[in-house]
Amino acid sequence: MNNKVSIKDIARLANVSIATVSNVINGKGRVSPNTVSKVNKIIQELHFVPSASARSLKDMKSHLIAVVVPFLEKGMLQDNPFYWEFVRGVESGARHHEVQVILLGIDENEDFSFVRQRHLDGLIVVGVFEHTSAFQKLLSLDIPCVFLDSHLSNPDFHQIDLDDEAGGYLGTKHLIGLGHKVIGVLTGKLEEGGVNYFRHQGYLRALRESGIPEDPELVFEESPSIQGGYQVAQRIGNYKSKISAIFAFSDVSAIGLIRGLHDIGLSVPANLSIVGFDDIFYSQYLIPSLTTIRQDIVAKGQIAVKMLLDQIDGTGLGIDKRSVKIPVSLAVRQSSTSYKEI
Predict the structure, then answer these.
(1) Cα-trace Rg, the chain
(2) Does residue 309 register a pLDDT over 50?
(3) Are 239 and 268 in contact (CB under 8 A)?
(4) For the domain bounded by 164-295, which CATH number is listed?
(5) For position 1, what pLDDT does the model report?
(6) Does the keyword DNA-binding apply (predicted)?
(7) Which CATH architecture has domain 7-50?
């Protein structure tokens, strides 16, 4: 049978109304078990697949959602495996709901017209700041949204955040425990309220507890990318007589950093210990394998899409279900080792 089989054909062969076939497909209405069995048998025999556009017209939904990442430089979505793993989690959570997922990077001047043009049912927004015009535009859309890694102050927003401060603390304490006292941090922009800000706060707390003074010269703000990490390696080379460890606030930055250090003649961990953040898939397969702060990125995507679909369906809107904090842990591997004075 060709792919032009329609719901009318199913109704004719089953000797029932089109409405009955629609109820069987959508699991709605009162239909006898015998009729359900007969209709489903014909559907299977004809390999009939319900039209997504017809379903959209029926329930007034597009069954399409978007993962939106604001303010990323061109190409960074493709370069950062974090987003691949996160979208994998979103897709796996959406699959059983017959919802499709698109991934979009936008800039601050985006007018979000794509939301209306593509009739999106909802958005998962990664890393937006409350004070930006993009955030205000998002609110004006008046569609279901879940905010990820944004640390928004308003408890009415549906949001999922990592315990970033705890992650910054864990990574720094690990290095201090290995005897390191001059510990640099490789971070993206340190903007108050962002994930890097909270990770840096954890770093500072660990220093204070150990009586290690803060040194602003040890903070390297750079694009959270492989290229950004590589470029910082050149700058760190000027401090090689005192820096013994670097805590990178993303694994992709750590990967670029390790390669950059290699190219200027510094070995990890012999010359510098490195800790990353995220535990992306590749971290354990690097040489040396990367010590990092672990978060379950795929599970994070699954939680985000469930929270969004609950909004779209009008369920699970209790205030106690609007905010989720994801825990972190430390994965110790080969890139960090005990301090040895040179």
Answers:
(1) 25
(2) yes
(3) no
(4) 3.40.50.2300
(5) 41
(6) yes
(7) Orthogonal Bundle (1.10)
